[in-house]
């Protein structure tokens, strides 16, 4: 069930149209009512009242609104270029039973057209809870995540939320000061097109080191340094220290590859680009294969290196979902 309203028109209009679409759908096909009503249990209805509503397949607008508010999923095409303008919100009933964590989620979702795919990102034991991510800790601050999750009655107890709740006001203030200094002062200096002063690189290195020191007991939760480290790598590249640039990017990859797959994709692409510029094509191909598997294995399943045809099959898929990979493959003379 999908709203056709573009995200550009605002989340409110999307939600309104989706509510109208689903209410109309339930009027036409009332046997779907139990599927929707079971997605929300917060109304002041007795168990018997709710059972009666479900038994009669009655249209209960407030139940529909609450079920949608707590369970709709936004279609996002930032990751896949499908030459489609389908955007907006949708309701998929089975994924609505997954719980949330800001990090350490064991499944993730993506779209091909209006199809929602759910894939695991690590082996999952029998009986283990499936956990998805509604607001991630890299893109959204603790306050932003808390505000959204409160709206859908989620009290997140993930490692990241617990750490951020426990941090002193002094640490939070210092982090904010350092990040402000990066965006307003250091980044404009080191992102100049041509030259970078070594003193500015030292400033950035000091800033990253201090940010990491504030979470030295939780090095894998220092997501706020990923962007800064990427900037540092390209600053070294500008002054001709290619080895240092690659070393920084590989360090970021090793630290966060199991936690922040979406951000790590950007790091891998940068590693491929730098190796290509340095004519280190075999190294570039190795990282290209890593990136290719990250993109297609959720759809194709585990790919085996000893099967030579896997790369061709994978590139046929990326031509549709991530055509940039095919352009890189041509540059590197891959298949």
Would you kindly provide a written description of the structure presented here, covering whatever features stand out?
The protein is mostly helical and 335 residues long. The chain has two domains: 7-163, Beta Complex (Beta-clip-like); 167-248, no CATH class. Helices cover 55% and strands 7% of the residues. It is built from 14 helices and six strands. The protein has helices at 11-28, 33-37, 47-56, 61-71, 142-151, 159-166, 169-190, 198-213, 226-238, 242-256, 261-277, 281-300, 310-321, 324-331, and strands at residues 73-75, 88-90, 99-100, 107-112, 115-120, 131-132. The chain has a two-stranded antiparallel sheet. Strands 3-6 form a two-stranded parallel ribbon. Mean pLDDT is 84; it is low at 1-10 and 77-84. Residues 49-135 form the SET domain. InterPro entries: Gramillin-biosynth_MTr, SET_dom, SET_dom_sf, TPR-like_helical_dom_sf. This is SET domain-containing protein.
